[in-house]
Amino acid sequence: MAGTELTGDNTCLTFVLHNEDHTLGNALRYMIMKNPDVEFCGYSIPHPSEKKVNLRIQTKGLPAVDVFKKGLSDLTALSEHVLETFEISVQNFKAQQQEEESMEVQ
């Protein structure tokens, strides 16, 4: 998992995501910011040659770890929905193509 910055306040943490980049950083930041209990969420890449994302979360009272886990869960659910919708669309397209081809043969 990610490393965290340990302070006395569990509502404000920085998570370090190793072997990740803007793809996960920005998507996760977006999902976390949709949570009304979040005051701030931002990420940075310390250096372009490092495959590391620093993700900062500040909440209005909930533990930042819980908000981080919910953001990951929400992003997973969204990704699964997009994949399922895409696969259905591909199946429908292929079926339509086969139908059109069989109509041309007749």
Automatic annotation (TrEMBL):
<dbReference type="GO" id="GO:0003677">
    <property type="term" value="F:DNA binding"/>
</dbReference>
<dbReference type="InterPro" id="IPR033898">
    <property type="entry name" value="RNAP_AC19"/>
</dbReference>
<dbReference type="GO" id="GO:0005666">
    <property type="term" value="C:RNA polymerase III complex"/>
</dbReference>
<dbReference type="GO" id="GO:0003899">
    <property type="term" value="F:DNA-directed RNA polymerase activity"/>
</dbReference>
<dbReference type="InterPro" id="IPR008193">
    <property type="entry name" value="RNA_pol_Rpb11_13-16kDa_CS"/>
</dbReference>
<dbReference type="GO" id="GO:0006362">
    <property type="term" value="P:transcription elongation by RNA polymerase I"/>
</dbReference>
<dbReference type="InterPro" id="IPR036603">
    <property type="entry name" value="RBP11-like"/>
</dbReference>
<protein>
    <recommendedName>
        <fullName>DNA-directed RNA polymerases I and III subunit RPAC2</fullName>
    </recommendedName>
</protein>
<keyword id="KW-0240">DNA-directed RNA polymerase</keyword>
<keyword id="KW-0539">Nucleus</keyword>
<dbReference type="GO" id="GO:0046983">
    <property type="term" value="F:protein dimerization activity"/>
</dbReference>
<feature type="domain" description="DNA-directed RNA polymerase RBP11-like dimerisation">
    <location>
        <begin position="12"/>
        <end position="84"/>
    </location>
</feature>
<comment type="similarity">
    <text>Belongs to the archaeal Rpo11/eukaryotic RPB11/RPC19 RNA polymerase subunit family.</text>
</comment>
<dbReference type="Pfam" id="PF13656">
    <property type="entry name" value="RNA_pol_L_2"/>
</dbReference>
<keyword id="KW-0804">Transcription</keyword>
<dbReference type="GO" id="GO:0005736">
    <property type="term" value="C:RNA polymerase I complex"/>
</dbReference>
<dbReference type="InterPro" id="IPR009025">
    <property type="entry name" value="RBP11-like_dimer"/>
</dbReference>
<dbReference type="GO" id="GO:0006383">
    <property type="term" value="P:transcription by RNA polymerase III"/>
</dbReference>
<dbReference type="InterPro" id="IPR022905">
    <property type="entry name" value="Rpo11-like"/>
</dbReference>
